[in-house]
Amino acid sequence: MAATLRFPSPSLGPVRRKDSFASPVLHCLLPVTAGTRPSRFERRFGPLSSRKWETHLRTRCQKPTQDVQEPFPPSRLTHLVQDFYDRLNKKDIGKLDELMDSNCLFEDMAFPRPFQKEEAHLFLKQLSTAMGQNVKFCIDDVYEEGKTNAGVRWHLEWKKRAIPLTKGCSFFYCSENADRLLIKKACVFIEPSVKPGAVVLEILKNITSFFDKYPKLAIWFLEKPHALFTYMLKAYKIFLEPFILPLLVYYTHLWTYAARLLSLVLNLVQNVLKPLM
Q1: pTM over 0.85, yes/no
Q2: Which CATH code of 3.40.1000.10, 3.10.450.50, 3.40.50.150, 3.40.50.300 fits the domain covering 76-190?
Q3: Which tens digit of pLDDT belongs to each residue from 232-270?
Q4: Cα dist. 221→140, 210, 213 in Å?
């Protein structure tokens, strides 16, 4: 008697067995014989029980495991970047200095000029203090270029919750020093809090049009950009400073009093809510 394939009836649902963990598709492919004579299927493959048949099908369908490749292990460069942010999160500035070269240059694009070794130490200490106890750096991706350069995408989190407008990327340029990698230079770019969007493109369009229209003036400005600001500063001191400085002093004192008042209100609210929490 020829073997037949059993397919589950749509009205009854799939055939299930309590003693098997195979899927319903494997159950519907079990051979069924009407008599005791060995079927063509059994003559070809031998007598197979249902569980043995399920194992045979599962083995045929599975992909070979030898083709699966393990991910690349972290390199020394990746470990260096991870250690840098881990020690910064732990506020361990002393051990953080051990990862930096003696002539390390730390350049944060939010500041007008880069920090040298001692200045970088002070800046990182102030940064860890400003982060408080619950704000942490979280690394998103690490990209390597060769064996000494790396780029990192990161963001800030407060108690494992992402803080808006705190994304950034850092570039580390390292050097070999007695079989150790040390950070020689670091450049940090932070997500701007103000996003002008298409206004930037319009400003860029106007600037490039001005440069194309007056190339000599553009060359002079690009070669000596500080000269224009020097003239502007002189004009400000002569014409605007006598009028603007008193207003700035007045508004500075006004905002100082406003900040103190806001701090007093927040402390009062905190003290009121503290017994209720």
Answers
A1: no
A2: 3.10.450.50
A3: 888 877 877 777 778 778 888 888 888 889 989 988 888
A4: 39, 12, 14
